[in-house]
Amino acid sequence: MFKLLKLVFVLLFFASCSSVYVPTVPNTPMLSAQGEFSGGAHINLKGDANFNGAYAVSNHIGLLLGGALMKDERRTRDIRRKQLEGGIGYFDTFGPDHTRILEVYAGIGTGSTHRTYRVYDKDVLISTELQEVNYSKTFLQVNYSSRKNRNFHLFGNNYPINYGTALRISHVSMGTFLINGSGQPKEDNIFLEPVFFTRMRLSRAVQLQYTTSYNLGLKNRKYMTAGNSIFSVGAVINVGGLKSKN
């Protein structure tokens, strides 16, 4: 009877696993003029390391490139994830002193997730499940941000603060899905990701960024589910572009 309950627990445990897809930290470069480069590195609470960059090839056209890596090994589970995405879009500045920025980007991406779940009974391994997923992604993203600074007073110094928001719509579709080497029904989903970020300027080029967002899925799925929040901290550099008067 105990063994039967143990197996039921194992099945419930595997069924309740989090999504095989975890969104990257959205690329919010705040481009303002031709020749500007933006690059960033971020880490979130799930241990994902995110990297992104952007370059303004003209006064209104920008290119994006980003990715994420994660490797988390524990006694009962191992998770390895990697993603890569790129895009192209339009940006423009407006408002007083051109301090407000609107950006619209579209792009594609690819990724993979390998997860191993293990269940032990008195230090004896009784069950292992290996999930292997490869997927593709398309996305549309709209960013609104402001370079109008508000000073943050800390330890006798003033640090300019600016902020922004973004909405990313992503369609993610499995290419392959294996459990213990056996093919499984493929899943897809459409995700809505509202994003809010705040930057504290340390110098003309370098800023600290805090990002928070949520992940909403429009389809009911077992593995390609939603509900993954992003709370990340990182550093961003912007070289070139319009200079703030503050």
From TrEMBL:
Keywords: Signal
Top-rank lineage group of the source organism: Bacteria
Residues annotated as signal peptide: 1-22
Protein's name according to its UniProt entry: Outer membrane protein beta-barrel domain-containing protein
Biological source species: Pedobacter lusitanus
